[in-house]
Amino acid sequence: MTTIDPAAFDAHLRARAAQTEELLAALLADTPLSGEIVRPANLLAAMRHGTLNGGKRLRPFLVQEAAALFSGDAEAAARVGAALECLHSYSLIHDDLPAMDDDDLRRGQPTVHKAFDEATAILAGDSLLTLAFDIIAAPETRLPDDRKVALVMALSRAAGIGGMAGGQALDLAAETAAPDEDGIVTLQAMKTGALLRFACEAGAILAGAEADDRLRLRRFGEIIGLAFQLADDVLDVTADAKTMGKATGKDADRGKATLVGRHGLDWAEQRLDALVEDAVGVLSPYGSRADMLIATARFVADRSN
Fold it and tell me: What is the pLDDT of residue 194?
């Protein structure tokens, strides 16, 4: 399937994550950018708390590896990945709020509204969402304007009413009116899958890949999204809060319908294996060049946190 062993993959993932963390720290520095007036210290501290908190940085990793598949500019890919991570961090800050998922712990530390307050958490999320598009549009992201426009459009669609935000709305509604199986798949494809799909497609966009390649990476991202959420649902049942760095068992406590709840753990494990095989098939035209992305699919299916 792939010649990359798990230890080598893990080392590469960690190296990419460290690179992303360093770039995010620079983007969230105290000094205002041209056109900014001042960066309020408390708001900036909240943004940093919700962003510079470790994690696998899987979404930036996918952007970078998808771009590398087509020999895309590595620095531009790192910046687009950081932009996506800002947007992802905003979504987590808002999801953790009492009016949403009401979580006190994220990656083993207090959530932003607990470490600061609810109003600051809302503003921190707002600011990170806006910053994501700033990073893509900025002259430091050295890409042709048409590729920047394509990235902004794709990210807007992935993050908005027909993507992540809409998926969160469906997820909240599912607490009182359980969806059928198709409804579960749809809300998960939106809430979780849309940004992962964008991450893979973004690498092809910024590299100027052909339309067929862009569609192929988009499909790979959809498969990764399905696998990620299914693995997450498995971990919500099988892992503890210390391992996950956040509360577990919340889906069952809230009565949320999941595919694991409907079909069981054995079915989920078989489905994850099938999704990895699907991912391999989608990337088969690229041969060994796609080994790192294929290893990522296996990682997503097998992860323990």
Answer: 97
* CA–CA gap between residue 196 and residue 293 (Å, rounded): 13
| Rounded Cα–Cα distance for residues 95 and 195 (Å) | 15
Q: What is the mean pLDDT of residues 93-108?
A: 94
Residue 270: what pLDDT? 94
Q: Tell me the pairing of strands 105-106 and 109-110.
A: antiparallel
Long-range CB pairs of 288-292 (<8 Å, 24+ gap) are 288/3, 289/69, 290/69, 291/2, 291/3, 291/4, 292/4, 292/9, 292/12, 292/65, 292/68
Q: E-strand spans in the chain?
A: 105-106, 109-110
Distances (CA, A) of 38 to 34, 126, 138: 10, 16, 18
* d(C-alpha 172, C-alpha 90), whole Å: 18
Using an 8 Å Cβ cutoff, are 87 and 157 in contact? no
Calculate the average pLDDT of the chain.
93
